[in-house]
Amino acid sequence: MAPYEPEQDTTEADELSAGRRKAVRYVVPLAVAGVAAATIGLVPALATSGDPDLPEITAQELIEKIAASDTEQLSGTVKISTDLGLPSFGSGMTGGFAPGAGGGGGDDEGGKGGKGAADPSAKLMELASGTHTLRIAADGPDKQKLSVLDDAAEYSLIHNGDDVWAYDSASNEAYHSKDGGGHADKKGDKGGKDLPKELPATPKEFAEQALKAAEKSSTSVKVDGSAQVAGRDAYRLVLKPKDSGSTVGQITVAVDEKTGTPLKFTLSPAGGGSAVVDAGFTKVDFGKPSASTFDFKPPKGTKVTEEGDGSKKPGHRGGDFEGEGPEGLNVIGEGWTSIAELKLPGGQGLPTSAAGSDEVPQDAAKFLDSLGDKVNGDFGSGTVFKTRLINALVTDDGKVYVGAVTKDALVKAANAAQ
Predict the structure, then answer these.
(1) What DSSP letter does each residue of 366-393 carry, written as one string?
(2) 314 touches 181 (CB < 8 A)
(3) Shortest CA distance to 175 belongs to which of 126, 114, 223?
(4) DSSP letters along 52-86, please?
(5) What is the DSSP string of 151-195?
(6) In Å, how far from its chain's centre is CA 6?
(7) Residues 6+ apart with CB under 8 A from 98
(8) How far from chain centre, in Å, is Cα 365?
(9) Are 98 and 91 in contact (CB under 8 A)?
(10) pLDDT tens-digit map of 43-73
């Protein structure tokens, strides 16, 4: 099926901006888990086939369709593949759901000084690497469930009213928050509660972040044909950065033709190759899930850690695009090419093989050297550490510049900051 329209230049940004803002603000969250990215909230085709013949629609109309979506109930299976070019964050067995994997630092006191193996902030970070299968269900803003499946274990997050439970079957540990995570819903004034937002887990969450970034940058937006995802007809919305220096090639969002719900999200890198992030439904049902889906009672013998022992709440977002960030954080630029600048403790960069220390042996420093590229500029000297999407420049005087940008863009930002 041919594309419906030519690319829309940023001269049309005024027309698209209102729709994007509305989409970001009003789309009903189907999130059952997620992460806020610090500087830019972004991340093989999954269950796609065919090329359905759908009525023509413009990019503006499709963005408005997403904004108008009133989907509050669904259940289904989501497959997420993430390839940043890094080793898996998990340990023990595929997917990282072995006992103690991603451990939350728990101890024998059931949460004194740590939140245990069921800690959502640790467990959900495992989604940032490899391929994972998730089962999700949602019934309005007060009932959601996400289960991360592994060959020999399952990790679940359940939000039901004021209760949020996290349960790790591998370790038989649970984490419980009585206030739903303890943070108000930013999309309204009702103080609604939700599951912790450590990492985007559904196509809708990824799409919201992409639209948010697109609103703040020079972006090409178009509808590029159609697709079929999880047996449903969908439009393909494509966003491309027009700013030079971004490592993002394009983002494709498959939007359900009937409901306006994002069904699939694909982030392709500017350098080519496989997708950095591919998250899509393989099965989806927009019917009301059974009420029992959201019931949870810890199995006998489960070690339960209660929230409120002084550790960070599961809902703490540690700094996101609009929230508070690490101390001394400065964001340079905006949108696709935004770069976070911060300082390392002690005002020193990473040790090099030429200058080992008592704390870091020369062999370890040499290993760090091998992971990055040495660079020089008006800022002095430093090392650039690269992934397929996020790159970071650590200067020898203890400053860090990080973003979804190229090495040259990081050096340019460091030079300009002098």
Answers:
(1) HHHHHHEEEEEETTEEEEEEE-SS-EEE
(2) yes
(3) 114
(4) -------HHHHHHHHHH----EEEEEEEEEE-SS-
(5) SS-EEEEEEETTEEEEEETTTTEEEEETTTTS---TTSSS-----
(6) 30
(7) 90, 91, 92, 153, 170
(8) 31
(9) yes
(10) 333 334 457 999 999 998 998 899 888 899 9
Question: In this structure, which amino acid lies at residue 136?
Answer: I
CA distance 102 to 354: 33
Tokens of 228: 């079929």
User: What does CATH list as the number for 10-306?
Assistant: 2.50.20.10
> Tell me, what DSSP letter sits at residue 125?
G
Mean pLDDT value across the chain: 74
294 torsion bin: left (phi>0), alpha (psi -120 to 50), beta (else): alpha
How many other CB atoms sit within 10 Å of the CB of residue 236?
A: 23
Q: Are 333 and 319 in contact (CB under 8 A)?
A: no
Model confidence at 91: pLDDT above 70: no
List of residues 6+ apart from 312 with CB closer than 8 A: 121, 318
Contacts of 162 (CB under 8 A, 6+ apart): 178, 179, 180, 193
Q: Sort 211 into a burial class: Cβ within 10 Å, 0-12 / 13-18 / 19+.
A: buried
Task: Report the predicted TM-score, pTM, of the whole model to 2 decimal places.
Answer: 0.72
Q: What is the mean pLDDT of residues 351-359?
A: 54
| Structural contact between residues 204 and 31, judged by C-beta atoms closer than 8 angstroms | yes
Q: Which two tokens stand for residue 27?
A: 């789309």
The DSSP output letter for 327 is T
Token pair 């390839």: residue: 83
Taking residue 381's Cβ as centre, other Cβ atoms within 10 Å add up to 13
For the sheet with 248-256, list strands across it: 219-229, 232-241, 248-256, 262-269, 277-285, 73-82, 130-139, 143-149, 154-160, 163-168, 173-177, 303-306
Confidence class for position 333, pLDDT limits 50, 70, 90: confident
Question: Among 111-120, 235-244, 289-298, 386-395, which stretch is predicted with the lowest mean pLDDT?
Answer: 111-120
Q: Domain limits of the chain?
A: 10-306, 338-416
Q: Which among 117, 91, 84 is positioned nearest to 103, based on CA atoms?
A: 117
| pLDDT tens-digit series, residues 140-158 | 999 999 999 988 889 999 9
Backbone angles phi, psi at 392, to 5 degrees: -140, 135
Torsion-angle region of 67 (φ positive above 0: left; ψ -120 to 50: alpha; else: beta):
alpha
Return the DSSP state at 35: B
